[in-house]
Amino acid sequence: MPSQLYDQVAPGDRFGESASIHDWHLLTAAALYNDPGPNHVNLEHSATNRFGAPIAPGFLTTGIMMGVVGRQYGWSIEAFLETHIKFLAPVYPGETLDVTWEVQETQPKEAFGGGIVTLKGWCWTRKSDRLAIEMDAKIALNNSAGPGLHVPPVCGS
Fold first, then answer.
1. What is the CATH number of the domain that holds 123?
2. pLDDT per position as a tens digit, 7-16
């Protein structure tokens, strides 16, 4: 996994990805988080509530957002320090999410061998083009590259 190191990060940097949400994600999240809430897994209940259908758990969607951060910074992540989340609209199975993050601030911190990066993230649902989540996060990054890949063995003929 490539890792963007702390010294390579600057305010204004942007990165993002897209991901699709399916029923499987809702059921798996309900089991992992021990949250089989009727809004997420009960078709009859969710058909009559304000959402009109099952919705993704908020922490499933924010977990997908943080996965984008994890793939961007990889081995250089020292710690996830803080977050603030605003849930603005529901996310339904079958929707594709567009996640964008922007670096707001960097602060050198010797204890991490790099520093603290403040991020602002957004998650839109592509189908209905609505902002579903707005998220602030602080992570600690170092300047150490991850382990290199093994060199394949030489095969003789």
1. 3.10.129.10
2. 999 999 999 9
